[in-house]
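A.,

Following up on our hallway conversation. Structure tokens first:
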């Protein structure tokens, strides 16, 4: 185990169980990998659920103006403070990053932004002139030039997925899981995993449910309030909605045949949707919008397709439904996209600052 190199203080409000959505999964994966690789301490809010994880809990307010946090930073004397805000890179997140810098000026403050955010003209001026962290890390290239023009040092990270947990299922395992959810063998399962919110455009899956021999399954995160009216419309249309916590979500992917990611608004998902990567690791064919960092990393082919309209989505689902799945190799496309590599790249970027 390599524990050489610089000391890292990792702070994130997203370190809270259950780890069942993108932001939390990134935070959890970083926490576990950093603990293996470096002298690192993880910090989160006192009210968060951390189970048996070795995470320091502090009463964090909105601006991080906390004497206990300041004392911890002073005593730990980290070379690097790595901050992953649970609301991503909002204006207030930049303020908090600046507060962390003021608590120990010798530390390099690195902020990880995994979702697009927008700022008012006044906020933009303040960020550019007073609130810049030592480095900003992003999951997609869309915002890279914007922040570079504000004078920031910016690096874009590769995606990551737990490809040991998410892997292709044998037919017998797939059939066994389908029986548990009472889904007939003659149905093709179209899966989506994510928050049950109107703004995520998942209502379009009602039209997919109308395709012959298709069963749509939607798994909603328990960390975000489910919009009950939307859920009712989905269920009424015949969609199977799973709105309770599933300890091993990989089993749901393993029973599916096609994965659809319909999100359009960049405010409604992290820049590199983990559910798409998990579907690819499970070797499902993917049909997705041209979202965030996906277009930076994956070209369109017969197994990974982009759509822009409802008509295209329906056409592609019908096409993939009739295609032999034996030739799918989406899992090979992400073989190197591990949390091990993801964390190593963060460490490399951070240590180059010091």
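Then the amino acids I'd put at each of the 354 positions:
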């Amino acid at each position: 185990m390599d524990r050489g190199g610089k000391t890292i203080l990792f702070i994130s409000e997203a370190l809270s169980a259950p780890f069942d959505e993108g932001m939390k999964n990134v935070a959890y994966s970083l926490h576990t990998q950093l603990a293996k690789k470096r002298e690192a301490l993880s910090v989160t809010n006192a009210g968060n659920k951390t189970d048996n994880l070795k995470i320091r809990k502090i009463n964090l307010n909105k601006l991080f103006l906390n004497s206990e946090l300041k004392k911890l930073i002073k005593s730990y004397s980290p070379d690097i403070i790595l901050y992953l805000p649970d609301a991503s890179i909002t204006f207030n997140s930049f303020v908090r990053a600046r507060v962390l810098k003021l608590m120990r000026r010798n530390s390099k403050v690195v902020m990880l932004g995994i979702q697009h955010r927008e700022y008012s003209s006044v906020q933009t001026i303040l960020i550019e002139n007073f609130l810049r962290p030592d480095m900003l890390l992003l999951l997609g290239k869309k915002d890279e030039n914007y922040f570079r023009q504000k004078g920031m040092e910016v690096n874009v990270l590769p995606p990551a997925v737990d490809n040991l947990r998410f892997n292709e299922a044998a037919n017998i395992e797939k059939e066994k899981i389908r029986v548990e959810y009472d889904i007939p063998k003659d149905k093709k399962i179209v899966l989506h995993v994510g928050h049950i919110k109107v703004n995520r455009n998942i209502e379009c899956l009602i039209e997919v449910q109308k395709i012959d021999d298709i069963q749509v399954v939607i798994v909603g995160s328990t960390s975000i309030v489910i919009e009950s009216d939307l859920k009712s419309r989905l269920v009424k249309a015949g969609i199977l909605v799973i709105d309770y916590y599933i300890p091993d979500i990989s089993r749901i992917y393993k029973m599916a045949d096609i994965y659809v990611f319909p999100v359009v608004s960049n405010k409604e998902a992290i820049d590199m949707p983990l559910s798409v990567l998990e579907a690819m690791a499970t070797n499902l064919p993917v049909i997705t919008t041209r979202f965030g960092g996906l277009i930076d990393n994956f070209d369109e082919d017969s197994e990974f397709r982009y759509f822009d309209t409802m008509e295209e989505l329906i056409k592609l689902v019908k096409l993939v439904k009739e295609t032999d799945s034996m030739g799918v190799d989406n899992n090979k496309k992400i073989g190197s996209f591990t949390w091990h590599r993801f964390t190593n790249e963060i460490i490399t970027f951070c240590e180059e600052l010091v």
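Residues 22-37 form the longest helix (16 residues). Curious whether your intuition agrees with the design.

B.
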